[in-house]
């Protein structure tokens, strides 16, 4: 238990400890927990320096002696090289041609266990996608890689899924004492939802269950380091290797709780005590939803700001007069020697890219997996379908089409930022206009994907691949163009704090062709009340009344 009088300080220390480039969220739904029987995992790659683009590596054969260069994903630092596999599979972002998908979130853990080997967590993902076809193959590839070459990062959680099953694996290095890593992997039950968000989620686990795998020394190593001294059956991976404090609970487990709350509200409600006060039982690794989840709901969950919960970011005074569910960094601040924290929601402004991966064993082979891919803030992005058979990345998502320092108007990342950053200033007014366009596009895409399943099923492999590659490219292009128009529209409509009047889908003009006087919406009542009651401004700003 964490005592409540220590919570705020712990929130602050943990929030500061999470590397900004690694603060990510991954949600999971098993195939019997979804409306269509597909397995779904999500990912938000949140970083203030990560440019949103879709990585791609074609399948390839490699001659004996070929070496693969290892570059740390977060820093671009060269770590070394390892022998290349004889054949590598085609990858599209965090998915490969077989539909295997891997997501992650970093939790750091005990700093003395930071890895000293060759394989960082990003390389671990992308090398594995090139070498494994299934989730179980991926588990073996990943653990073999860190055992053979050493692990270079801190504590990490991974979602690893194919069209048949989904696993959570948690892994941390052994510091300078050993180049390997200790880890636990658990298969998520088919009828459950799960997730992780920058805090280790695996506590006690069965020691003789074929759907739980773990490093042979995961318990003995903890004993040797003084992290654990109880019975083996009482061992908690999270308690031993992670740091459980206020930031890990409210800032990290809180995001997973919000997912649980959305789909299993009565049973999830008691775990709010764990999230807010560190009291009661830990948030469970998985939970059964009350109703089955569909892909549009998973996309909506990636847009969550705790709406409708005690942590609702649109409701507190920090939201301002336009109910903005965003808080600029740093996450912690001090007032009169007391430390406070902002909430950390799933949707956040500094996302590079996010996705909802949908893997369905019943779908045509060319559509076995769909990476619903978006760039920038998940709340305002458009999720475009990228199929496992796609052979080319659309120009709008391509690596090198713009970067964090070079704006490109045909790059989806920059155009989505153009829309989102206007809304951050006047959210409650602009978000209905954004939702209207966003939903129109995503509804149209969803309808086309549904209709394409039967058409693609009868196509030869090469024709199906070409058809789906073109479909992805068209929607990436059309959405980017439409969002540029949306950004222009927002700039014109909300210019100078006003709202231009509209009629019949156009900005309204007088009979003489002049602009009609705009609306002056001003601010909300709480804003005006704050001014009126401010001792430094209220009396001074009272309207003068002449007798």
UniProtKB/TrEMBL annotation:
Pfam families: Peptidase_C69 (PF03577). Transmembrane segments: none annotated. Keywords: Dipeptidase, Hydrolase, Protease, Signal. GO terms for biological process: proteolysis. Its EC number is 3.4.-.-. The keyword Coiled coil does not apply. InterPro entries: Peptidase_C69 (IPR005322). Residues 1-23 form the signal peptide. It catalyses: an L-aminoacyl-L-amino acid + H2O = 2 an L-alpha-amino acid. GO terms for molecular function: cysteine-type exopeptidase activity; dipeptidase activity. Belongs to the peptidase C69 family. This is Dipeptidase.
